[in-house]
Each structure stands twice: as C-alpha cells, then as structure tokens.
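User: Can you write out an input/output pair for a complex, sequences first and structure second?

Assistant: Here is one pair. Inputs:
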Amino acid sequence: MIAPSFRVNDADNSGFVVELSHFTGPLDLLLSLIRDEQVDIYDIPIARIAEQFLARIGSLGLDEAADYLEMAARLLRIKAQMLLPRADGEESWEDPRAELVRRLLEYQQMREVVDLLEHRGESRRHQFGRRWVPQAVDIMPANAPLSLSLGELLAAVDRVLRTTKEPTLHEVVPRSLDVAGAMGTIRALLAMRRDARWSDLIGNDAEPWQILSVLLALLEMAKLGELRIAQHQPFASVEIMRDAVSEAA
Amino acid sequence: MTPLAKLLEAALFAAPRPIPLESLASLDTESSPAAVSAALDELREHYDVDGHGVELVEQGGGWQILTRAEYAEAIERAQVAVRPQRLSPAALETLAIIAYRQPIGRAEIEEIRGVAVGSVLKSLHERGLLDIVGRSESIGRPLLYGTTPQFLEQFGLRHLEELPRADELAIALRGAGTAVIGSAAEDDV
C-alpha cells in the first residue's frame, strides 16, 4: 500500500490543490487498479473495481478530493445501471461502461504521449544551448527632459483631477490625553486614603480620553513604584493601593 | 569551410534560440535556400567529423548549436549552466493533451485528465511552454491554449508533426464508435 503523501499548495490562492505523488488524478488511479487486477479494459468488473476504488481513496485519504469523489460516484452509478434487468435479445442495449472505457482509453493514449515527451525532454536536458539575455531596454531615461509645455501638463492634471472621485473625509478631532493631570489626581487621592478603587477615579460620565488618561497614569505610577494594582478575580473591581515600599522610603 | 557555412556558424552562435531556415536564408540574399541547406549540412559534418564539443541540431522550429550530451554532467557539476527543471507528471499530461488537441480549452483538458488544471495551466504559461491562442466561440468564450516554439525546443522536437499521429499510438482509439461495445458481458455483481 502506498503511503499517503500530500502536497498542499494554496500559496497563490488558486484553490485547494491536493497533489498525490503517485496518482495524477482519478483516471490514473483507476487505470492502475485495472492493471493490478489484470482485467480487460473493455469488460471491467465494475462492482469489484468500484469497491477497490473506494477502498483505495479511503486509505490514501483522498475521499475528500472532489475529483476522486466524482469518479467514485460515477462508478457506483454504472454499477447500479448494470444491475438493471434488460430484456433478452434486446439489441439496442448500451453498455453503461462505454463512456468510462472511452475516457480510459483516451487517457491511456495521452499517457503514451507523456512517456514520449518525458523521454525526449530528458535527452534534451543533456544539451545546453547558448543563453543570451537581452538587457532591459530603458524606454525613458530617468532624467529625460519633459517634452511638453506647462499648459499641457496642467491640462492633464486637471483632466485627472476631474475624473477622480471626491474623497470621503472623516473629521478626526484631536483630544490629547492628560496623563500628568490624572497622575496628580491619583496622588492626591492616595494621599488621603490608603487604597482606592477604579470606580473612585472614574466618574460615571467620564469621556474616553479621561478613562485612557487614568489608565495610563495608573500603569505609569505602578511602574514608578508609587502604587500597586490588584484584581483578585476576573471582572472584580480593581484595587489600587499605596505601595508600602515607596511609603517607607 | 565555405564562407556561407562560416556565416551561418556565426549567426547560430549569436542566437539564443533556434533560428528558422528562412531567417538563416535571409543572412545572405545571394544564396539560394538549397545552398543554405547544403551549408548547414557542411557545418554539421564539420562538428561531427572533426570532433567538437558542440553539435548542430534541428529542433524547436529551427537550427541551434548545442553542447554534446556527454558533457552535460561536467558542465552542470561546475555550475557553468543549469538544466531546466523537470516537469511534474500533471504538467506533462496537460502538455501532451494540448500538443495533440490544440487549440483546446480548459474544460476539455479537464475532461480528459479528470482533474482541475487551472494552476497547472498557469505555471506552464509562466514557463512559456504554452500560450493563449484565442477564444472559443462556445458559451463563455473560454480561452484556448496551444504550445509554443519553446515547448518544441525543451522537448527536442523539430516540429509538432514529429509527434506520432494519434492513430500511430499503441493504444489507438477505435474511432468515435467505441461508445457501444459489442457483447454485453456479464459483470460479477
């Protein structure tokens, strides 16, 4: 049994490509089964081959590749059609396998050409020709003078501007944070009380810039060793304490 | 060597690609095509008989001077030149179909190979082995693909006709009439 070996290639986003090193597609796999079983391509025992095809794509992990699944479905349909009763002596009976046989032969024929190309390509690879890479032609030297008048240039700019859409602008109001001010407030509060809560520092109607200022101030002060911040469990109220060490100092 | 043979040698040495016979003939308007052919034979013999490291080869729709196969390994080992990469089996299958059925659309290739070929077509196109040669008149006007002179060159083919005709292949299709197969053999269901 051949070990499954995949190369997943979605680098260029052209879809999910599964390439199996041993089989180039469902027809290839089917042909190899037919060879292994030594059955006549014009008289394929569909039930047996369909079963083995399913088993093989299962063991190769190919049962999710659409191309293989499509072939599996086709085989099962042919198997079902073969089971249909047909009147004795009916001459116009069309073998449900005919289309599959035609495709297999066509595919096999193409594989013969592949062998030929491979052979020819391999012998050609043993010969080198001269390689001459033409230098890229500079269409416009970098410092070439412009051969048009100022009026023409401005007219061109005007045309470009006319065709471009009015850009949609968002007005961004600058609101600088006041970290130093917030630090002052916190220091004043901690001078009166030993500890405080987050909610003590932020009023109910605080604006985003104020909240951010207090947060940055707290972090800055914690870094400086002026206070300690603790939260005893997730989502609990944040406790802010004077730092014992800096107090002692 | 005759002056014409020397002129051809110089032109072939300067060219990065096989040069078609017509272009070689235009090098010297005084010489007849027959004289050019004779001069090419002379040059080829000169390389073969006197013992040269290169040979004159007709392929890829023209004539080209190539190194002899026996020196390939030494040349590559010394990294003087690099061989083109081998193509994957999937790429070869796709090329084989296009070579025989061109101009051909993607859907038809996929029908024969039984798998999607979009990314293979893209990489073959990037390698310059196939080209878009037109659009089909059928629904959606799909692109049609064909092989390039570079394809012939890379596979050492003189022209497309050098590939065996479809009916010369060992597994020749039994015409279009294979759809109905004579005896309805019993299946082992």
